[in-house]
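Dear Dr. K.,

Following up on our conversation at the group meeting, I've run the structure prediction for ABC transporter permease from Trichocoleus desertorum GB2-A4. I'm pasting the input sequence below exactly as I used it, so you can double-check it against your construct before we proceed with anything downstream. Let me know if the numbering doesn't match what you have in your notebook.
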Amino acid sequence: MDPLESVKMAVTTLTANKLRSGLTMLGIIIGNASVIAMVGIGQGAQKYAAEQFESLGPNVLFIVPGSREAQRSTFEVPKTLVLADAQAIATQVPSVNAVAPQINSQQLITYRNKNSNSIIIGTTPEFLTARDFEVGQGRFISELDLERNNQVVALGAEIAEKLFGSEEPVGKQIRIKDVSFQVVGVMEAKGAFLGNNQDDTLYIPLTTMSSRIVGRTSPYGIDLTFIVASAKNEKSVEAAQFQITNLLRLRHKIAGDDDFTVRSQKDALEVVDNVTGALTIMLAAIAGISLFVGGVGIMNIMLVSVRERTHEIGLRKAIGATQQDILIQFMIESVILAALGGAIGTFIGVGGIGLVGAVTPLKAGVSPIAILVAVGVSGGIGLFFGVVPARQAAKLDPIVALRSA
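The predicted structure tokens came back this morning:
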């Protein structure tokens, strides 16, 4: 039989039972849409994380208290870094350009009748260079502010808008933990970093933070939340990481495991990529189960179709159709159901990715490989699960088929 004629007959048969054909394709549609959407969203999450870390600058290093094991196994991070460590890094590590020690704390901020629970960062003037921040209005913390423990604050763009609205913030007084601070500057908008809004943050002198807000708890000096260091250039990052590690091991007299961790942007990005990649594979695998369920549905409906069309099969065999013709006929119907369901599911999946990209910060992208794999797998599933009913139809005895009609 002419293959084109077989395709026409298959289309005619399927369109004669539109509702049943549509329900048969539903599992394939859902499976394809889910796989394509999950892969696209996973890739979008990886791109989003990469952009977030790139906003830190390619040369940034974070020195965090506690070993990797201690950070994973305890809720409270040990306080093993002090201001003297940051000063030693700044003066003794030649591959470092700027070093900014930080003390972070969440406190209640008050201006007149307006309140906000925001992150306070105690730091030094080098913070601007190390973190690539810019002042939009007024000034940032100065060395004189550190020496005198001045009660001055630079506001993030969003917290300034929240507290002052259209009012000029520079020169005004706000209260942090019932301590009065004068606003000396407003930062340029920086955006969020992995869910942390950097524009809803306030910056005060490190010494003032230690003495007036959080207090001193280390006998070795001002204890820090972490230290940010920027290497001189991208090629110096590994050297800076090695030199900082050796310096701190000597300062802390470490013979065994480190009591600190030096992380680069690349290290953090690799961790995030591994996590998001594993989640993407897991979600795509779960969504792929729908494709298998859809294949079972196709086989089930095609088996029912063989029983319903016993008379038709017997009649076609009686007028000369071979077993191969009947086999091809039912195989084509299965593949059409699966391929059409795959195409519809692809459009739905691509539309879902576009919707996610429109309403969330994730720049979800359409993966051509995911589309090809999903459509190819759905077509293969139709072919695979169509074999049993097609063989059953092809083996029917024409005399028995006509008598049973």
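Two things stood out to me. The chain has two domains: 3-51+271-404, 98-223. Residues 132 and 294 are 52 Å apart (CA to CA).

Best regards,
J.T.
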